[in-house]
Specification:
Elements (H helix, E strand, L loop, with lengths): L1 H45 L5 E5 L3 E2 L10 E7 L3 E8 L5 E11 L2 E7 L12 E10 L4 E10 L6 E3 L6 E3 L3 E8 L4 E4 L13 E7 L3 E10 L5 E10 L6 E5 L4 E3 L3 E8 L4 E4 L2 E3 L6 E7 L3 E10 L5 E10 L15 E3 L3 E7 L5 E4 L2 E3 L6 E7 L3 E10 L5 E10 L8 H25 L6 E9 L1 E3 L8 E7 L3 E8 L5 E11 L2 E7 L12 E10 L4 E11 L9 E2 L3 E3 L10 E4 L5 E4 L4
Parallel strand pairs: 2-8, 10-15, 17-23, 24-30, 32-38
Antiparallel strand pairs: 1-3, 3-6, 4-5, 4-7, 7-8, 9-11, 11-13, 12-14, 14-15, 16-18, 18-21, 19-20, 19-22, 22-23, 25-28, 26-27, 26-29, 29-30, 31-33, 31-39, 31-40, 33-36, 34-35, 34-37, 37-38, 41-42
Length: 585
Amino acid sequence: MRTKSSLETRSARYAQARGSRATSLLFVLAGGAVLAILVFLFPLQWIRPPKVALSTEQAVFSPNGDGTLDSAVILYSLSEEATVSVVVLDKAGMVVRTLTAEELQPAGQHSVLWDGRTDRGGVVTDGEYIVRVTAQGAARTATATTPIRVDTEPPIIRLANLPEETKVAQEEIAIEGVTEPGATLRLNDNPQPIPVGDDGSFSLRHHLVEGENRIELTAVDAAGNVASVVRNVTLVLRPPEIIVDNPPDGVWINQKLLSVQGRVSPGTTLLVNGEPVAVDDAGRFNVDVLLEEGDNIVRLEATDEVGNTSVVERYVRVKTQPPAITLSSVPEGLEVHEPSLLVVGQTEPGATVLLNDQQLTVDAQGNFQGVVNLLEGTNLVRVEVTDRAGNSTVTTRRVRYTIGTERPTEAMLRPIALSALAGAAFVLALWILLGGWLGPTSLAFVSEQPLISSNPFGGSDARFRLHLSRSAKVTVRVWNEAEEEVAVLMDRRRWHAGQHVLVWDGRDGRGNPVPNGTYEIEATASTLLTTVTSSLRVIKTDQPITGLLVRREQPARAELGAASQEQPSVEVRSGGEEEQRGGLM
């Protein structure tokens, strides 16, 4: 039993010893492996180059001292500590500037600034350059490069369709041109940039206000260089003004050569009746225009430099023939017994009529009338007519005025003879007592022109002569064929004995033209004890009057006394009936 236990004890001790030796061997082998790895890898780590990452904040800059992008910032990072050199090379590879020379720098981010100058202090020329960063490690060197461009020239701006000091008539214009590709382009103070194509072209539309507009285009390139171009564009919306000093509109002239004078805006092109007219620096013009007889239109057309047009027209009437005068009421050599004479005539409408230097009124048909005071003997009646064009016609008539009483007619003497048979003393006493009121009254109503025509080529008014043997109140009425009163030409007007002239223009009491037809003119003369009426007919027509048709009515007479042999006053109606009248006023 003891023997077996000893063996087991010795076996256990032997196994424990073997385990300790195996563990020690494993520790030795692990340490040797680590040492082998360190010995093998250390040279590899020692000969590895450092890593360099290089970039620039601005690939283009302009060292021109304008305060915008005058220098370039160069950024680089090191993976480990290294000796760094930073230089700038030109296209030929020559160093133009050393920014950092073999400076030991730790791992991390670094930066350096280049102001665009050489090592000698001068500014480099515009062009492409290379920035090179060299990092020297323990055994090896790393290098990184990046391009950089120097640009001190401002960008170009060329406009294709907008010359300086431009004037236009359109409120919206197109602005087109080219600039440097990649430049930022703006119009005036608008912060929104204008799109620029890859070739540098641009196009936009701009709204103008009336008057002068300032257009400024500003371009900024990638280097910060700035260029601008300014144009002043004037928007003209108002057409040019035309002031015509001569002729006035609607003028009448008696010459065919007309001087057209006035002024327009300076720089304006002027046409008068389609023909170009010279305009001086102040805009004044003066040109003679040949017109035709009758109606003419003088047309002036002015066009300014942007195409705005104004037109002014003047109506001019050319009349070179003198006006005609018709004096039907005053024949040459007329002899009258009244100190005043009614002159009735006709001429052109719108003309000026002077009757012995007294201006008369001319109606729309050209009719006129006036009274001339006569002196005993021969008088000269002078009528001067001047039309609107300035043409004049003068007509004279010699009228003889004699003072005297009219010879009593047989009709006037018969009552006196009859009264004388009854008693000359009674008649004479009664005549003296009544102041001649018992004397006879005779009325002679004579037509000089029984036709009324509204024809423009031969129009005329009806004219009458009324002879009174003594002073009386006269009423003259116009009746139509239906025996309706049309007009009252005179109502109970006191007329003295003698010859009087009446005119009817064919209008009713309201001034309206009456229809064509036959009308009766009734004249009534009333004294204290007697009334005498006479009438005659006139015809209203549109046909021209080719001659004077005169119808003379027999004088009508009435006197006091039923035993008189004279016929009573007779009124002749248009229907042919007769009416006897008499009585007191």
